[in-house]
Amino acid sequence: MELLFLGTGAGMPAKQRNVSSLALMLLQERNAVWLFDCGEATQHQILHTSLKPGKIEKIFISHLHGDHIYGLPGLIGSRSFQGGTTELTIYGPKGIRDFIEVSLSVSQTRLRYPLTIIEIEEGCIFEDDQFLVETALLDHGIPSFGFRITERDRPGTLDSGRLKAKGIPPGPIYKKLKMGESVQLDHGETVSGLDFLGPDIKGRIITILGDTRPCANALQLAEKADVLVHEATFAAGNEEMAVEYFHSTTTQAANIAKEAGVQELILNHISSRYLKADWDQLVHEARNIFPNTQLSNDFSQMTIAPHKS
Amino acid sequence: MELLFLGTGAGMPAKQRNVSSLALMLLQERNAVWLFDCGEATQHQILHTSLKPGKIEKIFISHLHGDHIYGLPGLIGSRSFQGGTTELTIYGPKGIRDFIEVSLSVSQTRLRYPLTIIEIEEGCIFEDDQFLVETALLDHGIPSFGFRITERDRPGTLDSGRLKAKGIPPGPIYKKLKMGESVQLDHGETVSGLDFLGPDIKGRIITILGDTRPCANALQLAEKADVLVHEATFAAGNEEMAVEYFHSTTTQAANIAKEAGVQELILNHISSRYLKADWDQLVHEARNIFPNTQLSNDFSQMTIAPHKS
Ligand SMILES: [Zn+2]
Ligand SMILES: [Zn+2]
């Protein structure tokens, strides 16, 4: 599981940072990629990575500002043109369907794969046996969602040493025991996998927020997350401007990370007013409050390691 | 007057060529830029040039395929965000209004300048005292327009030597004579500017075609043009494929240029199947038929010099 930042700027494209898009790479977990937001030229950014558009399984749109959605029609079309045939599901606020449908229909784009568009509300918007995705509304003037992606816990490690000592040799039976099932042995005794399993291995939690002022729902979505991706459009000291434009500062993001008790904070959605020479200062402002902070850059890639227990 | 090629590829963005956009720089002529087509990331390409989005006065859209329009919403929004206040007029096939209006409305983009959208038919779509823009439908499966931009002729050079010899000294009177007007001199004699003017200086003609198979309207729009920008999606020998996909080959473009009697041909809209090493071959195929041929590249700039007479 990795985060691959495709666009980390705010509002308009700039040479150093493109507009918003972030890929959650789930290649080991499900041979798929989930995209969060899709600003203009996201498909261009992808050309400079190893990401295959055909692997994109889901796209989550936080809000409908142009810098978060104008890359959708092109990416959707190119994914088909390049031979993508598997289903693509797009989740976003009410209005996303109109934008996509009108864009594809005026351009007479015909897709070779099934496209599903889901206009979301707060709550659980997706779950299967691996992941759960929950959303809540943030504070951005227009509906802007945050996403909390929870990986389900996995059964702990099977204690094969103790099983062998009990005279149960490795075989298909181990698979059942590993799932916590009970199994009857040849000589009649029944053993339960639960007695030989270590504690559940906790799934990872990734919180990716759309544009927002600091708010209670941001805090709740980030609760004890392994990684929190929070916008930091402005530097510390610009809190008035942040309020006016419905954004956050570096220190506001750090305070959310600290209060929510996350493991790591990634500052994202950085205004182009800050030049390369300013970036160190931005991350230091946050680290004064929450030490384990990184600043995202276009094409930065961050691994989220599985838990050991 | 210059042509600045912003995107010269076909169908999908590639590292070497972005999707379609071409700027006709009319800075000396009217302190303005006219854009022809606006594929995704046109505003990103502009970041690498000296072109100021606020100077873009008109955008002409040849047809509604995604690689020619998906950059419009972003460019329109950024032009406002960057402080553009002068009117912008967009000309394009029926459907362009829906695409722009839905894109701007779902993203709640409010513009600080007047935006006019004109859905065009064949014929004269714009004229003022400097320029005339005429369109005709090409052959591309969906409505695809070609544009013929005609600069109006200007009055010839005033023969000041002969005027002085006649005892008429330079002064405000020369301005009237230059316009071909008649003027009464102090001693009563009337002189006509027409008697002292050289022949009209011919305006330039630039023909910019949307995607098309070779066709009669392409020929007509290109008649005696100074510059013809013609698509050449495929290499010579791929005429069957060109027919199937409603495109042209290098030699088909060259034949149109030759028959139309243009001064210069620029091959544009080059498929990404052709790599840098193939480009020389493409231009040579056309030059065998029409010697004064160039191949466009992203960011290539070509001057169209004024006529001397
Ligand atoms: Zn926003
Ligand atoms: Zn086309």
Automatic annotation (TrEMBL), chains A, B:
Role summary: Zinc phosphodiesterase, which displays some tRNA 3'-processing endonuclease activity. Probably involved in tRNA maturation, by removing a 3'-trailer from precursor tRNA.
HAMAP family: RNase_Z_BN
Active site: 67
Gene3D superfamilies linked to this entry: Ribonuclease Z/Hydroxyacylglutathione hydrolase-like (3.60.15.10)
Molecular function GO labels: 3'-tRNA processing endoribonuclease activity; identical protein binding; zinc ion binding
Residue positions binding Zn(2+) 2: 67-68, 211, 269
The family this protein is said to belong to: Belongs to the RNase Z family.
Name by which UniProt lists this protein: Ribonuclease Z
UniProt-listed Pfam families: Anti-Pycsar_Apyc1
